[in-house]
Specification:
By secondary structure, the chain is of the alpha/beta class. The protein is built from 11 helices and 8 strands. Strands 1, 2, 3, 4, 5, 6, 7 and 8 form an 8-stranded mixed sheet that branches. Helix 1 packs across helix 10, helix 2 crosses helix 9 and helix 7 packs antiparallel against helix 11. The protein is elongated.
Amino acid sequence: MAYIQHFSHQSSEYLQYRPMYPDELYEYLASNTQNRDIAWDCATGNGQAAVKLADYFNKVIATDISQEQLDIAIRKENIYYECCLAEKTSIPSSTIDLITIAQALHWFNFEEFYLEVNRIAKQDAMIAAWSYSLGKINSTIDSVIEDLYENILGDAYWPKERRFIDDFYSNIPFPFKRIKTPKFKLQKIMNLEMVVGYLNTWSAVKEYQKQNSLNPVHLIKEELEKVWGDPKKEYVMEWPLHLLFGKVHDV
């Protein structure tokens, strides 16, 4: 749970510097869900996914373990926020049409969470879990960011759960009938300041600071500035999205 606290303490930075999931993703999920009464967005964070799902579903229940994240979450009249564990909610049984988990499944107790999913899901409910791995700009800039990611931080500061993302969610438990999906990606136009802000949202950066009283981003900042050039210059950063989608009950 220690790593979860890093997300709570940087809620506004997440909202400002992290990329948004593509609209095409929500359209795909909604169009492949039989009923659109209630969706559960689990580990909703700042409500990024919940607010988009609210355009397609009559009601969205959005839960998160962090009250700080929920305090800044985007409000909408058909979104109902609740602070609770993913594995234990107050959602009534057999009421949910779609369960979504964005960039968070790897943190859960899989066995307990999937018991909760099966409890609250309707007979024809769908489940979607997705993550995005390391973003790319160009080979020169990418190599500097990869140095921070792999060499400076690495396994010493990234939690072991991070490897599920590095493996594109290919090895994460997902005991449902998988459906083959289209490929999706995230994109964000970034200047140098925004990229530095994005790097500072990494949980491993916060862990490094906690252990060493030094921001590791400073160790690459000079080289990053050098390869970036004009700090106001903007590049498109792109993250591949890895989606697991399936039927909760195999009927």
